[in-house]
Amino acid sequence: MGGGELIVTSAAGLADALPDGGALIGLDLGTKTIGVAVCDAGWRFASALKTLPRGKFGRDRDELRSIMEGRGVRGIVIGLPRNMDGSEGPRAQASRAYARNLAEAFALPVLLWDERWSTQSAEAAMIGLDVSRRKRAERIDAEAATIILQAAIDAAANDPLI
After folding, report:
1. What are the backbone dihedrals phi and psi of residue 67, each rounded to the nearest 5 degrees, phi first?
2. Number of independent structural domains in the chain
3. pLDDT tens-digit map of 121-157
4. Distance between CA atoms of residues 61 and 101, nearest Å
5. CA proximity to 148, closest of 67, 101, 50, 80
6. What's this model's pTM, rounded to 2 decimal places?
7. Rg for the chain, CA atoms, rounded
8. Greatest distance between any 2 Cα atoms in the chain
9. CATH number of the domain within which 143 lies
10. Cα 159 to Cα 161: distance, rounded to the nearest angstrom
11. Less Cβ crowding at N or C end of the chain, within 10 Å?
12. Do 14 and 21 contact (CB within 8 A), yes or no?
């Protein structure tokens, strides 16, 4: 199976690729950091894990591998940064390339999930919890990854075809 076949574009596609479920990792790819979230094997709850400094792909891959192996991850959800009109710019293309590289590196299905508003939603939630500006800056990417992952697993749970 080639890496391109491992890229899925819908929650139903991810469920088809993983009929027995399994833990997932969610990623919010920034230019300087990668927000990381995880969910349980039953795809019920996503939770923020950490924010990694982003570097060369090989280093990122190794960091992610250590996280994924310890949690038995079976699939990956990556935020796809679309423009508000749904079009895709350079950041979306970079996320697609990163997804292909991860699919090839781990031989796991990768779902590209529309991440519009994820960072704003994470920021609003943390402000609502009275999280300090400094703490928000440290945790925003992991919280955005949680919102992305939770939206994907909620869509999978609510899809009548699944």
Report:
1. -65, -45
2. 1
3. 566 665 666 667 666 565 767 888 998 999 899 888 7
4. 9
5. 80
6. 0.83
7. 15
8. 47
9. 3.30.420.140
10. 5
11. N
12. no
Which structure tokens are listed for 160?
């009548």
- Condensed to tens digits (0 to 9), the pLDDT of residues 57-110 reads 999 999 999 999 989 999 999 999 876 677 777 888 999 999 999 999 999 999
Torsion of CA 103, 62, 140, 24, to 10 degrees: 50
Residues in the chain: 162
pLDDT value at residue 92 = 86
User: Half-sphere exposure of 53 toward its Cβ, with a 13 Å CA cutoff?
Assistant: 2
Structural domain span for residue 119: 3-158
Residue found by looking up tokens 């990668």 in the block: 34
- 88 contacts: CB under 8 Å, gap ≥ 6: 80, 82
